[in-house]
Amino acid sequence: MPGHLQRIAAVLDADLTAVVESGAGVTIMAAKLVLLSVANHAGRGDDGTPEGVCSAGIETIASEVGGSRRTVQRALKLLEDADVLVRSQEPGKAVWI
Protein backbone atom coordinates (compact mmCIF):
# COMPACT_ATOMS: atom_id res chain seq x y z
CA MET A 1 0.00 0.00 0.00
CA PRO A 2 1.44 3.43 -0.91
CA GLY A 3 2.61 5.63 1.98
CA HIS A 4 -0.19 8.18 1.71
CA LEU A 5 -2.83 5.43 1.86
CA GLN A 6 -1.12 3.99 4.93
CA ARG A 7 -1.30 7.41 6.62
CA ILE A 8 -5.00 7.72 5.76
CA ALA A 9 -5.71 4.21 7.06
CA ALA A 10 -3.85 4.99 10.28
CA VAL A 11 -5.95 8.13 10.81
CA LEU A 12 -9.20 6.29 10.21
CA ASP A 13 -8.13 3.51 12.59
CA ALA A 14 -6.92 5.89 15.30
CA ASP A 15 -8.86 5.77 18.55
CA LEU A 16 -9.06 9.42 19.53
CA THR A 17 -11.75 8.92 22.18
CA ALA A 18 -9.45 9.60 25.12
CA VAL A 19 -7.86 12.55 23.35
CA VAL A 20 -11.21 14.20 22.62
CA GLU A 21 -12.65 13.45 26.05
CA SER A 22 -9.75 15.36 27.58
CA GLY A 23 -11.41 18.62 26.54
CA ALA A 24 -11.11 21.54 24.14
CA GLY A 25 -14.64 21.13 22.75
CA VAL A 26 -13.49 19.23 19.66
CA THR A 27 -15.42 16.22 18.36
CA ILE A 28 -13.76 12.98 17.30
CA MET A 29 -14.92 13.67 13.76
CA ALA A 30 -13.32 17.14 13.73
CA ALA A 31 -10.06 15.81 15.19
CA LYS A 32 -9.92 12.99 12.62
CA LEU A 33 -10.72 15.32 9.72
CA VAL A 34 -7.96 17.70 10.78
CA LEU A 35 -5.54 14.80 11.24
CA LEU A 36 -6.55 13.43 7.84
CA SER A 37 -5.87 16.80 6.21
CA VAL A 38 -2.47 17.01 7.90
CA ALA A 39 -1.66 13.45 6.74
CA ASN A 40 -2.82 14.30 3.22
CA HIS A 41 -0.44 17.27 3.09
CA ALA A 42 2.48 15.41 4.67
CA GLY A 43 5.51 15.27 2.45
CA ARG A 44 6.44 11.99 0.88
CA GLY A 45 10.13 12.81 0.68
CA ASP A 46 10.12 12.76 -3.12
CA ASP A 47 9.27 16.42 -3.71
CA GLY A 48 11.81 18.12 -1.48
CA THR A 49 9.46 18.18 1.52
CA PRO A 50 10.74 15.95 4.31
CA GLU A 51 8.72 12.77 4.70
CA GLY A 52 5.87 13.16 7.18
CA VAL A 53 6.13 16.95 7.46
CA CYS A 54 3.00 19.02 6.79
CA SER A 55 3.29 22.72 6.15
CA ALA A 56 -0.34 23.35 5.15
CA GLY A 57 -1.72 26.46 6.79
CA ILE A 58 -4.68 26.70 9.16
CA GLU A 59 -6.81 28.29 6.42
CA THR A 60 -6.06 25.45 3.99
CA ILE A 61 -6.94 22.80 6.56
CA ALA A 62 -10.11 24.66 7.62
CA SER A 63 -11.23 24.94 4.00
CA GLU A 64 -10.64 21.24 3.38
CA VAL A 65 -12.45 20.00 6.47
CA GLY A 66 -15.30 22.53 6.29
CA GLY A 67 -14.54 23.88 9.74
CA SER A 68 -13.67 27.19 11.24
CA ARG A 69 -10.13 28.39 11.71
CA ARG A 70 -10.63 28.25 15.49
CA THR A 71 -11.88 24.64 15.42
CA VAL A 72 -8.80 23.60 13.44
CA GLN A 73 -6.54 25.40 15.91
CA ARG A 74 -8.25 23.66 18.84
CA ALA A 75 -8.03 20.26 17.12
CA LEU A 76 -4.33 20.74 16.32
CA LYS A 77 -3.61 21.80 19.91
CA LEU A 78 -5.50 18.77 21.22
CA LEU A 79 -3.59 16.43 18.89
CA GLU A 80 -0.29 18.06 19.89
CA ASP A 81 -1.07 17.76 23.62
CA ALA A 82 -1.85 14.06 23.11
CA ASP A 83 1.45 13.57 21.24
CA VAL A 84 -0.40 12.50 18.10
CA LEU A 85 1.25 15.40 16.25
CA VAL A 86 4.43 17.29 16.96
CA ARG A 87 4.58 20.98 16.14
CA SER A 88 7.91 22.27 14.96
CA GLN A 89 8.40 25.99 14.49
CA GLU A 90 10.24 26.96 11.38
CA PRO A 91 10.90 30.60 10.62
CA GLY A 92 7.62 32.13 9.45
CA LYS A 93 5.42 29.03 9.74
CA ALA A 94 4.51 26.03 11.83
CA VAL A 95 4.81 22.51 10.55
CA TRP A 96 3.36 19.29 11.95
CA ILE A 97 5.20 16.00 11.99
What is shown here, in short?
This protein has 97 residues and is mainly α. Helix content is 53%, strand content 8%. α1 (3-13) runs antiparallel to α3 and α3 crosses α5 (69-81).
Notable traits:
single chain, 97 residues, mainly alpha, two-stranded antiparallel sheet, 2 strands, 53% helix
Query: How confident overall, as mean pLDDT?
Result: 78
Distance between the termini: 21 Å
Strand content: 5-15%
Strand order of the largest sheet: 1-2
Can you tell me about this structure?
- Helix content is 53%, strand content 8%.
- With 97 residues, it is mostly helical.
- The chain is globular and about 35 Å long.
- 27% of the residues are buried.
Helix and strand topology:
Layout: H1 3-13, H2 17-21, H3 28-41, H4 58-65, H5 69-81, E1 87-90, E2 93-96
Antiparallel strand pairs: 1-2
